[in-house]
Amino acid sequence: MHGEESAKYEGPVAIDEKPAGNMPYNDMTEDGSSDPSDMEPTDEDWKTMREVADALPVSAYLVILIEFCERFTFYGLSGPFQNYVQYPNPPSYPAAQPGAMGRGQQTATALNTFFQFWCYITPILGAIVADQYLGKYRTIVLFACIYLCGLLILTLTSIPAGIESGAAFPGYVVGIIIIGLGTGGIKSNVSPLIGEQYRSRTPYIKTLPSGERVIVTPQATYQKIFNMFYWGINLGSLSAIATTELEKNVGFWAAYVLPTIMFIPGIIVVVSGRKLYISAPPRGSIFLEAGKLMFMSLKVKGGMDACKPSVLQDTHPEKMAAVTWDDVFVDEMKRTLKACVVFCWFPIYWLCYNQMTTNLISMAATMETGNVPNDIMQNIDPIALIIMIPIMDRLIYPGLRRVGIHFRPIARIATGFFFASVAMAYTAGIQSKVYNSPPYYNYPSQGDGPNYISAGYQVPSYVFIAMSEIFAAITGYEYAYKKAPESMKSLVMALFLLANCFASILNFALVSVTVDPKLVWLYTGISAAMFIATPIFYFCHHKLDKTDVEQDAIGRRGSVADAYQQNHVYAAEYEADAKNVA
């Protein structure tokens, strides 16, 4: 895109068309030269200079806003689902116990579990559509329209006339299927899309206004990006506080109207910011190509490295006719497979996390909550995250880098696993305390009221889970984006999300011990599994931290000097495009 064509540009920027990295194309070295090789950190620079994050483009904040609107909608809807299905329609509102269908706890739990499972399966479809056919931006627009259709069906069938006519149940089933499809298509693409807004792939030296020389790295920048992204997710999730109150005092139609209305600004942001987003174009036959590469690596001695065209043309020239990839694609596939192996440990982690939205809520119902609904306790987790994420991003992580501690992804994930284990161990202790409290002791769920113990004891459980998310969940998003090739980022993100499906399967397997008085053993067993897995995980993968920077540099952007020169070439037209957009 050069010259006159830049004025005609519309739609999301494809990364192969114009680099939009934050590398300072107008910066110079101390001697006044503009030679980019002088800006590349040396080994001595890495030892003496601290590592900092780069500034983020405006488009990254727009993507965070999109995710906030979608998560506000998702959590606002799903918060009242259990009561909506389980309990019958009350005579009037406000109601002591809101409900609509009266299908019972078993049906409500089964449908809720299906909805969660479905929402983490559908990202695979969204990833395939984005990576192979439409690209991330157009896929998000498509699935947002599907999402909106599901919202309208759910909301319209929840009005009093719909409930009385029996339309609520079929409307709910159809609605959650369509909503799950929509959220899956968005979820697998919105997190890679925010990562793509930052284009620099190599570290460079920058002089701060204070005169300090620092190294600006993609690793620190992506850590900042996904911290902010996850912060937006949890800010949106607080919508459940409002919708559960609306459900109780007005009715389910009001609880569903609020998130439906909130979803509309998200669509407006997606469409209105289309000229600002940077988005990798679809590659076409990427999955067929990856399959052919993996199949050939099993037949050729030497694995994937032996399947590089530069090697095959000397060792197996007869196979070159079937080769549709290049050497860089082979390196990208190797990095992707290593990332997917790391994701194999996450089902145990998500099993710990999922207790927060299921069994911990049931525990709160057997404890004294005062005037606070038991299902509102889970909001302690996002509140803790909203407070802690900025502290980690602005104080803790920069402080560690200042003293030369580079907290790389594997170490952070292992730390998150440890906190998840601590959360479950603490929860086991609180459950034991519940069983030792009168008047119902080991069988509080069968009593007419709670045992005499405050639900405030649960607060540390949610705080420990929140701490685990900062290190494990956020880093998982970051790792899935960074280690995936440009052409497969949505798919790799979907595979990361798929770990939650396996956690749901583990949850089903543990149903037999989710009854009194066995819950102490449930939490103890989950905690022990996570505690044992943590050091094994670190032992198996800690070497990946040593090559983290090197692996992240794999790609098609060229050297530091190339990127620097490209930014010089495109600087004028990039500014011209910005003026056109404005």
TrEMBL record:
Keywords: Membrane, Transmembrane, Transmembrane helix, Transport. InterPro entries: MFS_trans_sf (IPR036259), POT_fam (IPR000109), PTR2_symporter_CS (IPR018456). Residues 1-44 are annotated as: Disordered. GO terms for cellular component: plasma membrane. The keyword Cytoplasm does not apply. It comes from Mortierella isabellina. It is found in: Membrane. Coiled coil: none annotated. One of its GO terms (molecular function) is dipeptide transmembrane transporter activity. This is Uncharacterized protein. PANTHER family: OLIGOPEPTIDE TRANSPORTER-RELATED. The chain crosses the membrane at residues 140-163, 169-190, 250-271, 339-356, 376-397, 409-430, 459-479, 491-513, 519-540. Residues 28-43 have a biased composition (Acidic residues). It is a multi-pass membrane protein. Its main location: membrane. Pfam families: PTR2. Belongs to the major facilitator superfamily. Proton-dependent oligopeptide transporter (POT/PTR) (TC 2.A.17) family.
